Task: structure prediction
Amino acid sequence: MAPPPSTAVSPVVALIIRVITFISLLICLIIVSTNTATTYVDFETFKIKSTDFYAYRYMLASAVIGIAYTLLQSAFTIFHATTGNRLGGDGFALVDFYGDKALSYVLATGAAAGFGLAVDLKRIGVNDPTHSFLNKANAAAGVLFIGFIFSVVSSIFSSFSLPKRVAH
Result:
């Protein structure tokens, strides 16, 4: 009996999805790491940075983890596209699948943490310079969410590459 036909996605398409994920995570990293504001409270000046808030630190960490994983997987995808062979065979397809799942969860929670803190801080009513800070943080969380969406697409594509089990 012949094995079922493969529904695996082309390595070039998988690479394009990973590159888009990488670009969105890099944009998020740049926005979060450079986002600062100066606010005035009772005649005192305070400079705030994204890293002053734990939620934004988590968002930054999730972007860095996502960039590292996406670069690693992109290298494996380039190897697969150029040689036609999957590095590590069927066993690596499982690592790829579960790694994509885990990365998706990390990126989703990072984006949610960023959105949640911005909503909470806007709710307490802050002055204009801080609104700009929160808007930039929201933009970074939105770009991180886009990275999450493309990571989910990559995860779906990696599920197509899982070894097919045929009952005899």
Notes: Helices lie at 11-34, 54-83, 89-123, 128-160. The CA atoms of residues 88 and 95 lie 10 Å apart. The beta strands are 36-41, 44-49.
